[in-house]
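Hi all, long-time lurker, first post. I run a small reading group and we've been trying to get comfortable going from sequence to structure in the token notation. Rather than ask abstract questions, I figured I'd post a concrete chain and ask someone more experienced to write out its structure so we can walk through it together at our next meeting. Sequence below, copied exactly:
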Amino acid sequence: MNQPPANGRLLVVEDEAIVARDLSLLLAELGYEVVARAASADEAVEAAGRLLPDLVLMDIHLAGGSDGVEAARTIRQRHGLPVVFVTAYSGDDTLSRAKLAEPFGYVTKPFNERDIQTAIEIALFKHRVEAELRRSETKFRALFETTRDAVMLLDGRGFFDCNQATLELFGCASRELFVQQHPADLSPPLQADGRDSLAAANERIADAMRSGRQQFDWLHRRLDDGSVFDAEVLLSSMRIDGRMALQAVVRDISARKRAQQALLEAKQRAESANRAKSDFLANMSHEIRTPMNGVIGMLEVLAHTPLDAQQKQMVELIAQSAQSQLGILNDILDFSKIEAGKLELSPEPFSIEDTVEGVCLLLDRVAIDKGVDLELFVDPQLPRRLVGDAMRLRQILSNLLANAIKFSSGLARPGHVEVRAQWLRDEDATAWVELVVADNGVGISQPLQQRLFSPFEQADASTTKRYGGTGLGLAISQRLAEMMGGSIVVHSSPGDGARFTLQLPLRRLPS
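-- Answer (accepted) --
Happy to help. Here is the structure in token form:
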């Protein structure tokens, strides 16, 4: 299959046969394809419509009733083809008439090879550029008119175009009416921040002209009923017809703003309800804990009265249940105080070594009863006296140690728990201390570790049934650690036990 020449397909219109032949041969030598030769205006118009060449070389004076100017105008109007005039006549009258056809070039006879090739190439290039511009304009106009966003064009003097969506958004009857408006006319007198709309609009326009792009939220108003709505505005600078202009993607975001406001109000209501819940739980836990302490006290008195073996066993079971209930109430009370922001730390001088040893001694009997070996290591470099909330530190360590004992008992292998207290580093007058509680128990999977410190969470659903507990211990411990400026992290995998590491900054006492 023959390919068209790269240089283009040309139609030669010349009524002198010898000149037409010589011109056709020259064009062929230059690499152009002459698709046809015409000797009259009518032949030129017919051939142009039938063959659609890339360019027409047209003599102005042709035989017959019409000349080349009329033929060129018809070809341009019907088919949009570029025309280059080739003629021996170059007078003012001829040139004036030739301009009416909007030619892409003009070559006078006699011409040389360079003149004709230059005129043709310039004409073809200009035609390609114009065609591309028309395609771009068509594409832009299609997007401009069909987009659902309001799009408008403006320069330093104001608006000069807009699409249908703009008229609908602003309640304007026609483009002619809209372009008479100043940007500030589409706004209430003041913006949401209290600024004058006119001054703010001029400033935004100037900034966009200078920087090339501006995006912001804006209060607009409709022209028909004056109602105000929230909008998102994008200003983009561009050059249109040789002048700097702005394109403005105005989008009504009133629904989004209302949704955001509703979400904010719902969040505030939820936070208020959560605070009320925390206050209620704190008050109820306190009210329930007071009589529970009385029950436990009376059980201790009863335990020291003459009882037979069965009665003594029953009293011990009641006391254990009461202590368990009191522990749950204490957890709920502490968590409620933390959530309500009412729990306060009480820092004072204390011995961290004595505190850790005291917790281990307290839980050692529990470990023995469950068949778990408990081992303690204290770093010799650990500072002797520090300042902190010893009671809350005992609470954290007791939670971690009780869990370690609980989850490493009842297994096929002997249970083992290790507690390590060690000094990490000093930062000015602060000593960083690390407390580690490690066990060889059931372990925790990676997904479950992600929510382990969340309130009311335990390793899995079966944990509560098997081991009991509220799921608040670790959540409280983490919150307390954070209140002290520290943190708790866990490293574990199923079947390989768990390692909880507490790091705290504690103030050193002056020597």
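A couple of things your group might point at:
The CA atoms of residues 193 and 290 lie 54 Å apart.
The first strand starts at residue 9 and ends at 13.
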